[in-house]
Amino acid sequence: MSLIASVAGLGQLLTSGLTAAADLPPGDPYRADFSDTPVWLTLVKALFVFVYLMLSVVIVIWFERRVVGFMQQRPGPNRFGPGGVFQTLADGFKLVWKETFTPKNADAFMYNLAPIIAGSTAFISFAIIPMAGEVNLFGHRTPLQITDVPVSALLVLAVASVAAYSFVLAGWSSGSTYPLLGGLRSTAQVVSYEIAMGLSLVAVFIYAGSMQTSEIVAAQRSLWFVLPAFFSFIVFVICMFGETNRLPFDLAEGEGEIVGGYHTEYSGMKFGMFFLGEYVNMFTVSALATTLFFGGWQAPPPLTLINDGMLNHGWWGLLWFTIKLWLFMFFFVWVRGTLPRTRYDQFMAFGWKMLIPATLLWVMIVAFVRAAMLGWLGSATIGLGGRALPVAVLIVMGLVLVLALIAATLYERRRDRIEAARAQDRPTDVDPFAGGHPVPPLPGQTLVEPGSGRRPIARTSATSSQEDTRG
């Protein structure tokens, strides 16, 4: 939680010190107004969001299996229902009735608490996502959003910090080695890429002048932030896969290394809660990317000119929001069927050595350019959503950083290949006492007896004594 507080403090400092004081005009149709929203209507909207997410999860599981099957030239689910559309329901029914058990060496309380945390926290973040503008609902004029707070965008990171406990608790409480290793991997992965994700949001806070998701959407009514915040968007997309443990970053589930990861010892609906949490988190990060970079629920720019912006009001927003959301979900599925799993050490090195420093540099560039343009040119700079922003300069700087990140990655890969080539040039037979002190062999090397040329050691004294004892 200290990370969340640090990012929040940095974001508040930058947005208060570097943004213009120009607020949206009173009565702006994009501002979230909950004055006509009673408590019971908030509960109705919460139920609507829950049903929306559950139906979306059922559909996306079938969609993912069909699309990946098509990409791999196999049919996918095609038996239960037309096109196998009811297969997800059958799998869910099977999980409900499947026998659950608790391992003998497990900590029962923590073992049962971990899936509850994973399944419940996944829904919380969607409370601050604006799914549409103001709509008429049971005679009340209310935003299609459960709530909005001054630091709404950071709530997602706060919830992600809590959700990380489910990984480490599941791995530790199972009382088994492989789940413990999977839990440690997942926790380190999520915490590491949460830092870069939080820093990528700071630039968006500067552009919008606010951390409230409704006002961030409002600030994009003339230009979506995916253009000026191009580098932030690239970083956020990479972190999306790291945060949700999806290919190519599902490193907690390396079948050749640690079997099924932190939920190896879970079955039935306990496993189903982890499964549900993963897919709901995919929708959450996709919805956050839609809100922060693609105008949220607003229609694409050409459609906003039709009939005086009629397609940008009311329940139309839910349609545009859903379309953008599913484009990101298709991207998740596409990447899963395309890219192989990365190596864990490469993934962590990329996050700590490249992604986080590059994002810090990007934040400093944005802050400097923003302050310089406000101080030197004032209102003569390029306008974006009523706020002065040097859009072209930031686009160029973002592209330069992306190219620098690619170049650094290629350099690291080239250095790894050189190190591998040097390792092949090492002598295969080594004398452990050649330098006067016993040295263990490197991978691929064989020990030789001191002073015996290149004849390998047949067996050590310890091995000989063990064999004599057995004999």
TrEMBL record:
Organism domain of life:
Bacteria
Q: How does it sit in the membrane?
A: Multi-pass membrane protein
Role: NDH-1 shuttles electrons from NADH, via FMN and iron-sulfur (Fe-S) centers, to quinones in the respiratory chain. The immediate electron acceptor for the enzyme in this species is believed to be ubiquinone. Couples the redox reaction to proton translocation (for every two electrons transferred, four hydrogen ions are translocated across the cytoplasmic membrane), and thus conserves the redox energy in a proton gradient. This subunit may bind ubiquinone.
Q: Can you name this protein?
A: NADH-quinone oxidoreductase subunit H
Q: Which UniProt keywords apply?
A: Cell membrane, Membrane, NAD, Quinone, Signal, Translocase, Transmembrane, Transmembrane helix, Ubiquinone
For this protein, the record's InterPro entries field holds: NADH_UbQ_OxRdtase_su1/FPO, NADH_UbQ_OxRdtase_su1_CS
Which portions of the chain have biased composition (kind: Polar residues)?
460-471
Transmembrane segments annotated in the record for this chain:
37-63, 108-129, 149-170, 191-210, 222-241, 279-297, 317-335, 355-377, 389-411
Phylogenetic placement of the source organism = Bacteria, Bacillati, Actinomycetota, Actinomycetes, Micrococcales
- N-terminal signal peptide: 1-20
Listed under subunit, the entry gives:
NDH-1 is composed of 14 different subunits. Subunits NuoA, H, J, K, L, M, N constitute the membrane sector of the complex.
Q: Which organism is it from?
A: Arsenicicoccus piscis
